[in-house]
Every structure is written in structure tokens, then in C-alpha cells.
Sequence to fold (232 residues):
Amino acid sequence: DIVLTQSPLSLPVTLGQPASISCRSSQSILYSDGNTYLNWFHQRPGQSPRRLIYKVSERDSGVPDRFSGSGSGTDFTLKISRVEAEDVGVYYCMQGTHWLYTFGQGTKLEIK
Amino acid sequence: QITLKESGPTLVKPTQTLTLTCTFSGLSLSTTEVGVGWIRQPPGKALEWLALIYWDEDRRYSPSLKSRLTITTDTSKKQAVLTMTNMDPVDTATYYCVHAREAAGTISHWGQGNLVTVSS
Fold:
């Protein structure tokens, strides 16, 4: 199985400040079709996860443009340009390239 | 609009078999590229893929749980059923049903989740 390692696991951020989460894969998740199926999800307490980013950098409809995804091969990053109160919760990366699809351990973002 | 909803028990005893049903609208497992899967999340822990079934009845299972899992669809193709045998307290988790379109490598929609507690 592909292991996704997120860092940090805990991320205290001041409102209005940027935040960055890393997701590293144990092997390349570049698929033979040329796509890299790396996703980012956000889960608020007591809620189901919600997708923010797919295929590394494609932002979902309705997701604020302060969220951006980047990376290639085995190293990926989710960035929030200016953290807002509604951004608290846990962020997960997920690879959908090789079955068994796998998630990272999650990064808990909280407001300082 | 696509919606998915899980139904099933909230409490099962150790060694029992869990059966969860996902009822969805806005999509059908008779439509090309549609996939429906199950993911679980133990309290306070990360997400874990369990199984996935596609429109052409291609099935995928978590290798570590494969011997205990079965995913099926009903004749209407509007439900996906997950069975997990020999339940153990470590299987206590919220079980989510998701829509994962074939060859898209992503999850576009999630159900609300069904918390299952395994306890005698």
C-alpha cells in the first residue's frame, strides 16, 4: 500500500496568517494516463469530509481561492493564504492513483 | 444533485456480521463510470478505505480486510451494501458511503456517516 505522510499533524495558526500542509507519498502517484490523483479533504468536527482539491491543484467549485494545491511525484502541499475561522478542522490528503487508495493521518488546524 | 445516505445498526456484538446499506440518488450503478465505496473512521482517527464497486461490477477491497468484506449492489442499482463479518471492538467507527467515479481517482460526494459501535 502507498503510505501518505502528512506534516505537521497539528497546526496552530493566527487568523489572517498563511498555513501550509505537506503530504509525502511512499512512491510516485503519477498515473499512466499522465494524471496525478492527489486530493485534499477538509473535515470539520462532527461532519463528513469535504473535498477541496483534486488532481493536485484543481480546486472544487465553491472552495475559496485562498486554498491552493501544488506538487508532483511524491511531494505535495496544501496552502491557505490567509486562515479564516471557518478553516479549523482536520485536513487529509488522499491518493487515488493506486488501489488501495489511501489517506494521510490528517493535520489538525486550530486558531491560536 | 447527488446524495448518499448510510443505514444500518449502530450497535453490533463481537463476532456478529455488520450489514450497511448505502442508498443514493442522482446517480445509478447502471451508469457508466459510476462507483460507490465505503470508508471508515474510528473515533478520533484517520480515514480508511474498505471497498469499492463500479458500474460494471468490478469490485475492489482493502487487502487487509478482504476476507471479511463483501460489497454488492441491488437489482435497482440504487443501493450498495457492505457486509463485514466477525466484528470486533476495533471495528468501532463511523462508516461512510462515497461516490467515486471510475478512473477519476477521487471522491466527489460523501454520505453523512453511520457510527457503528462494537460491544457486548
In short: The mean pLDDT of chain A is 97.
